C-alpha cells in the first residue's frame, strides 16, 4: 500500500500544506526545527489516530488555532480511499471514506506504517513500558481482534484497580463483585497473552535472518516474552489453559492486591527480552548490538505485516541515516526500496548514499512549508 497524498491544516507549524508522494522513495530535506518530524508525525497520526511523540492530542494543533485536520489518500492493490483525522479542543474524529469511525479498531489498519526514529534504540534499552507499547501498536495495526481484547483488558483493569484502591483504604469489599471483575479480566488477559506469544514467535522468525545478515553471520537473535505471571509459555497452550492459570495466580495473591490497591501482575506488567548469542543485551549488549537489534526488529515487521495483511506497510525513517554506519545504511535502503513506500528525513543529502536510492522524490521543508523539487 502507499500514501498518495496528504493535506495538513493547522498541524503543528504547518498552517496549510499539501504534497503528492511517490510510491517509492520520498526524501524530506530541511534544517533543524523546520517541520520534518512534524510531517512524518502527521503521516503516523493519519495511520494510527495518535502521535508517537505525545499522548496529548492538543499539542498537534497549531498554537494559533483551535483545531487541526490531516487528510490523505491511500492506495492499495484493489482499492483507494481517503482517511481523515480532525483534532479539536472538544476531541478527535477519524473518518474512513468520509464516514466517521467511532471504534478505533474499525479505523486503524487501513494505512499501515512502520516508523523508525532515533528513540527506537529505547526499544532495547528503555523501560518495559516501551516494549509493551511497541507490541500493542504493531499488533494493533494487523490484528483487529487483539486491539479489541486489549481495549477491553485496559477498561476492566482500570475498574478493578479502582475497586482494589477503595478496598485498600478500608472500604468493605463485595467478594462477588471482585470475583466477577477478576474473571472478566482473566478472560481478556488470556486472549491478549495468546496473541502476543504468537506475534513474538513470528517476529523472531523474520528478525533472525535479518539480524544475522547485518551482523555478518556473527550473531543469533532470540526474542522472548517475559510474563509477570509465572506460567510456562508453551505455544500449544490454549486460551482456556492460560485463563485458568492466570486466574489461579491472581486468586492466590488477592490479599496482597487488596493491601496494595492494584493489580500486581498481568499483560500490563509483561516485557520482552532480546537475546543475542545467549546474552540478554538490555544489560549486557554493546550500543552497536542494541542498535542492530532495534533495526532488525523494525525491518522484520515489514515482512511480517506483508505476510499478515497481504500488503507492505509504509516505512517512515526519521533522522536515522546519520545514526547508522555505512553498512547498516546500505542494508536499510537496499532491502526495501523497491517494494515499500519510504519516507526519509535528513538535513542534507551529503551523508546519504544517494546512489542507492532509485529516483527519490525530494521535498524541501522550511518553516512549515513543503516544496517539491521538480523532477
Ligand atoms: N503545536 C505547534 N504549533 C506550532 N508550532 C509547533 C507546534 N509544535 C511544534 N511546533 C514547532 O515545530 C518545530 C519543530 O518541528 P520538527 O518537525 O520537530 O523539526 P525538524 O525539522 O527538526 O524535524 C519547532 O519550531 C516547534 O516550535
Ligand atoms: Mg526532526
List keywords for this structure.
375 residues; alpha/beta; 11 helices; binds adenosine-5'-diphosphate; binds magnesium ion
Small molecules held by this entry: adenosine-5'-diphosphate, magnesium ion
Tertiary shape: globular
Oligomer: single chain
Question: How many angstroms separate the termini?
Answer: 23 Å
Tally of alpha and pi helices: 11
Tell me the strand order in the biggest sheet: 2-1-4-5-6-7
Low-confidence stretches: none
Helix content: 40-55%
Strand content: 15-25%
The rounded Rg comes to 22 Å
Number of beta strands: 15
Global structural class: alpha/beta
Following the backbone from N to C, one meets helices and strands in this order, namely EEEHEEEEHEHHHHEHHEEHHEHEEE
Question: Mean pLDDT score, rounded?
Answer: 92
What characterizes the major β-sheet?
6 strands, antiparallel
Describe this structure in words.
There is one protein chain. This protein has helices spanning 36-48, 104-107, 122-125, 128-142, 144-168, 175-214, 239-252, 254-260, 281-284, 287-309, 326-336; strands at residues 2-11, 14-20, 25-29, 67-75, 80-88, 91-96, 99-100, 113-116, 221-226, 271-276, 279-280, 314-317, 342-346, 361-366, 369-372. With 375 residues, it is an alpha/beta fold. A 6-stranded antiparallel sheet has the order 2-1-4-5-6-7, with helices on one face. Helix 4 (128-142) crosses helix 5 (144-168), helix 5 packs across helix 8 and helix 6 (175-214) packs across helix 10. The chain binds adenosine-5'-diphosphate (ADP) and magnesium ion.
What can be said about this structure in brief?
It contains eleven helices and 15 strands.
Amino acid at each position: 500500500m502507499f500514501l498518495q497524498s496528504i493535506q495538513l491544516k493547522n498541524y503543528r507549524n504547518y498552517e496549510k500544506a499539501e504534497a503528492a508522494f511517490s510510491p517509492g522513495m520520498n526524501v524530506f530535506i530541511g534544517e533543524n526545527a523546520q517541520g520534518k518530524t512534524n510531517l512524518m508525525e502527521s503521516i503516523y497520526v493519519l495511520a494510527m489516530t495518535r502521535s508517537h511523540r505525545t499522548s496529548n492530542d492538543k499539542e498537534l494543533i497549531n498554537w494559533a488555532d483551535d483545531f487541526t485536520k490531516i487528510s490523505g489518500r491511500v492506495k492499495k492493490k484493489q482499492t483507494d480511499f481517503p482517511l481523515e483525522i480532525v483534532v479539536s479542543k472538544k476531541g478527535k474524529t477519524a473518518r474512513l471514506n468520509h464516514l466517521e469511525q467511532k471504534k478505533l479498531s474499525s479505523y486503524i489498519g487501513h494505512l499501515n506504517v512502520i516508523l523508525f526514529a532515533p528513540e527506537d534504540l529505547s526499544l532495547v534499552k528503555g523501560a518495559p513500558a516501551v516494549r509493551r507499547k511497541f507490541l500493542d501498536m504493531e499488533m494493533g495495526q494487523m490484528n483487529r481482534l487483539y486491539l479489541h481484547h486489549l481495549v477491553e483488558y485496559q477498561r476492566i483493569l482500570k475498574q478493578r484497580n479502582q475497586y482494589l484502591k477503595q478496598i485498600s483504604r478500608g472500604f468493605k469489599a463485595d467478594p462477588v463483585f471482585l470475583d466477577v471483575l477478576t474473571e472478566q479480566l482473566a478472560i481478556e488477559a488470556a486472549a491478549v497473552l495468546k496473541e502476543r506469544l504468537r506475534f513474538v514467535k513470528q517476529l523472531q522468525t523474520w528478525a533472525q535472518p535479518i539480524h544475522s545478515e547485518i551482523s555478518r553471520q556473527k550473531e543469533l537473535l532470540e526474542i522472548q516474552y517475559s510474563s509477570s505471571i509465572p506460567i510456562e509459555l508453551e505455544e500449544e497452550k490454549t486460551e482456556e489453559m492460560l485463563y485458568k492459570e492466570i486466574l489461579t495466580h491472581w486468586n492466590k495473591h488477592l490479599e496482597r492486591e487488596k493491601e496494595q490497591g492494584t493489580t500486581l501482575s498481568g499483560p500490563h506488567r509483561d516485557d520482552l527480552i532480546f537475546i543475542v548469542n545467549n546474552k540478554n543485551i538490555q544489560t549486557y549488549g554493546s550500543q552497536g548490538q542494541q542498535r542492530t537489534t532495534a533495526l532488525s526488529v523494525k525491518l522484520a515487521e515489514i515482512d511480517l505485516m506483508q505476510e499478515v495483511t497481504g500488503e507492505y506497510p509504509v516505512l517512515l525513517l526519521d533522522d536515522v541515516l546519520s545514526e547508522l554506519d555505512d553498512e547498516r545504511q546500505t542494508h536499510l535502503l537496499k532491502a526495501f526500496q523497491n517494494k515499500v513506500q519510504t519516507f526519509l528525513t535528513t538535513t542534507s543529502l551529503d551523508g546519504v548514499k544517494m546512489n542507492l536510492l532509485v529516483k527519490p522524490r525530494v521535498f524541501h521543508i522550511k518553516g512549515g512549508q513543503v516544496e517539491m523539487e521538480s523532477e
